[in-house]
Amino acid sequence: MLSLVMKTKDIRNGSLYFNLKRERVERVISNTFSKARVVTECHKKDQLAIPSTYLRKASKAEVTNYLTPPPKRGILSFLFGKGSRVPVPNKTLGSALS
User: Fold this and answer.
1) pLDDT tens for residues 70-95?
2) For residues 77 and 24, what is the distance between their CA atoms, to the nearest angstrom?
3) The whole model's pTM is what?
């Protein structure tokens, strides 16, 4: 049976691992931080030094999900997307003001 817990010497810079504590895929950007910790990031954000025991190799599905960019939102969905509704004038209020 394979061990899920990674040792720092087995972790490679640039590779993707699943962080068991944060429950997400992260890229190792430095495995020379210390003998027990590595530095990771998620999509070039949240750089953290974490114990290597928090990591396991990411599955193919997890890697694919991490590498798949989110769908792009067009200008119309930006302007008229969920939560950004343009107020429609109330006709009864408009006729009362005339």
Assistant:
1) 877 777 666 666 554 445 555 555 55
2) 28
3) 0.68
